Amino acid sequence: MKILLLGRDGQVGWELQRSLAPLGELIALGRDAGANPGGLCGDLTQLDALAQTVRSVRPDVIVNAAAHTAVDKAESEPDLARTLNTLAPGVLADEAQALGAWLVHYSTDYVFNGTGDRPWKEDDATGPLSVYGQTKLDGERAVQRCQRHLIFRTSWVYAARGGNFAKTMLRLAQTRETLQVINDQLGAPTGAELLADVTAHAIRQALQAPSMAGVYHLAASGCTSWYEYAKYVIALMDTAQPAIKKVATEIKPVPTSAFPTPARRPHNSRLDTTKLQTTFGLVLPAWQTGVTRMLNEIDHGRI
Length: 303
Fold this sequence. Notes:
Blueprint: E1 2-6, H1 11-20, E2 25-29, H2 47-57, E3 61-64, H3 78-99, E4 102-108, H4 131-143, E5 149-154, E6 157-158, H5 165-173, E7 178-182, E8 186-187, E9 190-191, H6 192-208, E10 214-217, E11 224-225, H7 226-240, E12 250-254, H8 274-280, H9 287-297
Parallel strand pairs: 1-2, 1-3, 3-4, 4-5, 5-10, 6-9, 7-12
Antiparallel strand pairs: 8-11
């Protein structure tokens, strides 16, 4: 089996290189063609070159881990967000369909309007609040032009590699006595390594059962707020990162309105993962499990 991975240098793409390697021949591409094997195009803004790359590689599976994920920046550069999140996935879908290949794509809880008090199901009505959310929803629809597709909606993604909310809290806790953290947005912090491992597992099964194609919600189990998430991280600081000396003595809960942003955030980012767990025979771990591991793994010198 030949797998084409796009977005190899991102948080999810980095973990996918590990999880997908045992499945077959893996061609992992970044944005810089000069650093790619054979000069292949991994830049989602180059639509024609992207299509030609797929035709040249002729993969059995395409995994697209590249996207425009700067939520606030997307409000001021909607054309770029649309190219990366909608047009490029559409190109990949059309090329995959022509080859009879599978296309794996990642989406977001931002396709919903964030209301209500229950986890979102795959067939719930969508209603994006931002340019980012709208372009990701349009991207989902484009991906579905490929009959053999797996779309994984996720939320609150983090990894030991790169920046994340937990690292920000650890950094602030070293310089501020009081931290103010939003407490009216709810979701489940989901590790990039969990996304990658589930992806590999799902691909293996879907290759044998094309009826598994579809949209799935994929997130760690449980639910928390950014405020409770911050409290959890700070509470683990002494054991997980003993070299870091904290000065923070208080964490205050504040509403979303305390931190205005260009893009509106959903208050309810909870995702119902029943369909995924039932279809693929999985049990998704509690969000605390991945966060604890990440806190123990990160290099305190790079926080």
